[in-house]
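User: I've been trying to design a sequence by hand for this structure and keep getting stuck. Would you show me what you'd pick, starting by listing the structure so we're on the same page?

Assistant: Good idea, let's start from the same input. This is the structure you sent:
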């Protein structure tokens, strides 16, 4: 009985734990091992009369692609080709990467993240209402309390929601324009709340005779809002205006994604530094020093941790490859939504 082995020229490439199919000089690397048929080895000394016919049969066999693969590529696994990718079946040319990441459905994660964002807004509102005297718009200390509430709501929670619009499975099919509008509208509302927060703090400082823009928190916060305004304007011109050329969109898209994550990180740092600065100023002349960790300090510190947790989870969701919207030329773009693999 003849022994079935891969072609000698491809024997050196059979390494690692990936299942590989070798047909002649073509090598396929797949997610899971699958039984594939190989051409039999030639006899050590074939007869002259049969040598030409067997060589022809061997060439035909070596050039024929695998008839069937017994597995389907799963999210979190990678299918690659070592040579001649155009000969590999289409369903195995692209599989989502991220083999080392935790497999988690997006919609439950999104609901959890929305609840966490609501908790952040509730915490900052309760802090200003319970310990800082409530809210007003008259240049008093109560007017300043609008600043942390509006900044956390706009620059952290709504901004994070806008960043995750394209991760919704519902946005993976059909026209992309409505989701662009939703993404831009959420970002615009977040920017409007941030501007109102700046108006509140500057009006309070001017009414009380307090200098503006002297602390690191104020520098970092204003730089974040200005960068956000440039980001929104550039995104509007590049992705929403109909006359923007395709090459401009393709060129600016990775820049837009990078600065989107950067702005969220800067917003988190600005909020945490602002909470810390407010506690130092408010508890400096209070009955209990900040170093004694009064109840207000514990509550505000917990708020800072919640803001960091929310932002880190948003950045983690943005970094997951299997939650990204498939590109139009990928196989995932033609798969059904909310299928079992997702």
């Amino acid at each position: 009985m003849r022994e079935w082995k891969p072609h000698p020229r491809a024997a050196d490439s059979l390494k690692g734990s990936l299942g590989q199919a070798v047909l002649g000089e073509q090598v396929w690397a797949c997610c899971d091992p699958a039984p594939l048929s190989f051409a039999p080895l030639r006899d050590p000394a074939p007869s002259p009369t049969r040598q030409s016919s067997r060589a022809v049969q061997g060439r035909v066999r070596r050039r024929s692609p695998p008839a069937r693969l017994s597995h389907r590529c799963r999210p979190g696994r990678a299918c690659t080709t070592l040579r001649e990718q155009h000969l590999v079946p289409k369903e195995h040319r692209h599989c989502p990467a991220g083999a080392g990441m935790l497999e988690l459905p997006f919609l439950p994660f999104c609901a959890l993240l929305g609840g966490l964002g609501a908790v952040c807004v509730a915490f900052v509102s309760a802090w200003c209402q319970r310990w800082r005297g409530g809210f007003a718009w008259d240049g008093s200390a109560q007017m300043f309390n609008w600043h942390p509430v509006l900044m956390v709501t706009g620059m952290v929670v709504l901004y994070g929601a806008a960043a995750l619009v394209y991760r919704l499975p519902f946005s993976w099919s059909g026209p992309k324009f409505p989701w662009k509008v939703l993404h831009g509208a959420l970002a615009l509302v977040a920017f409007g709340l941030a501007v109102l927060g700046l108006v509140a703090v500057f009006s309070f400082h001017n009414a009380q005779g307090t200098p503006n823009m002297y602390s690191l928190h104020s520098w970092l916060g204003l730089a974040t809002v200005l960068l956000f305004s440039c980001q929104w304007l550039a995104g509007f011109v590049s992705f929403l205006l109909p006359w923007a050329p395709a090459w401009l969109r393709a060129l600016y898209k990775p820049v837009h994604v990078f600065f989107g994550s950067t702005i969220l990180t800067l917003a988190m740092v600005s909020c945490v530094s602002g909470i810390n600065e407010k506690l130092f100023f408010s508890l400096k002349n209070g009955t209990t020093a900040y170093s004694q960790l009064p109840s207000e300090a514990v509550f505000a510190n917990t708020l800072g941790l919640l803001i960091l947790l929310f932002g880190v989870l948003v950045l983690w969701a943005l970094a997951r490859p299997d939650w990204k919207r498939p590109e139009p030329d990928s196989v995932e773009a033609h798969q059904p939504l909310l299928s079992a693999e997702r």
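That's my pick for every position. To get oriented when you compare it with your attempt: Confidence is low (pLDDT under 50) at residues 13-43, 55-100, 329-342. The first helix runs from residue 48 to 63.
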